[in-house]
Amino acid sequence: MFPKYDVIVVGAGHAGCEAAVAAANLGCKVLLATMNMQTIGQMSCNPAMGGVAKGQIVREVDALCGYSGIITDHTAVQFRMLNRSKGPAMWSPRAQSDRMQFAIKWRQMLEAHPNIDFWQEMVGGLLIKDGRACGVRTSMGLEIESETVVLTNGTFLNGIIHIGEKQFGGGRAGESAARGITEQLVGLGFEAGRMKTGTPPRLDGRSLDYSKMEIQDGDNPPGKFSYTDTPPLKNQLCCWSTYTNQKVHDTLRTGFDKSPMFNGRIQGIGPRYCPSIEDKIDRFSDKDRHQLFVEPEGRDTVEIYINGFSSSLPEDVQYKALRLVPGLENAKMFRPGYAIEYDYFPPTQLQTTLETNLVKNLFFAGQINGTTGYEEAACQGLMAGLNAALSVKNEAPLVLKRSEAYIGVLIDDLVNKGTEEPYRMFTSRAEYRILLRQDNADLRLTPIAHRLGLQGAAPRMERVQAKNRAVAEIDAFFRNASVNPDELNAYLQSVDSALIGQKTKLHNILLRPQVDIPGMAKVLPELARFLSAYEPEFVEMAEINIKYDGYIKKEEEMVSRMTRLEDLQLNADFDYASIHGLSIEARQKLAHTRPRTIGQASRISGVNPADVSVLLVHLGR
Question: What proportion of the chain, given as a percentage, has pLDDT over 90?
Answer without folding.
Answer: 79
